[in-house]
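Quick one:
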Amino acid sequence: MKKISKPDLVKLLHKISFFKSFTDAEIDKISDVETYIISRPAGKPFVMEGQKEKALYILLKGFVYVNKSSNPNGKLANLKPGSVFGDISFANDLKRTTNVFAEIPSTALKLNADLIAHLGAEIETKIKDQFLNILFRRLENLNKTFFKKLKV
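Output:
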């Protein structure tokens, strides 16, 4: 796949809600870490079930789908740019519980401890804040679903 130019990457990062609280200088610094920009052609995985990797992905471009190895034709979720995946393995040192495949040629930012440390304390704090917001929203959605099923 074609490499994303720095100006194009900066534009993509500005469009992603995960980075809405980041300054232009912070976005510029993140866009310098090209080795953490991962691209996959259609049908190729970003993560595989059972893999042990403490990294979080933010989809920048394209579309991906989530499935389980036990049901490779079933799609658990379709994700669009701005979506975050890999959060459970990032938060805990657990094996991946699902696969995430590129539906079309797709690009994601791979955040791991090395990159976050490299970016500095201010950016690290903002990444952790956004990560916590994502986890809280997911928990809230699970609660809503749970209580809806109980009809409470």
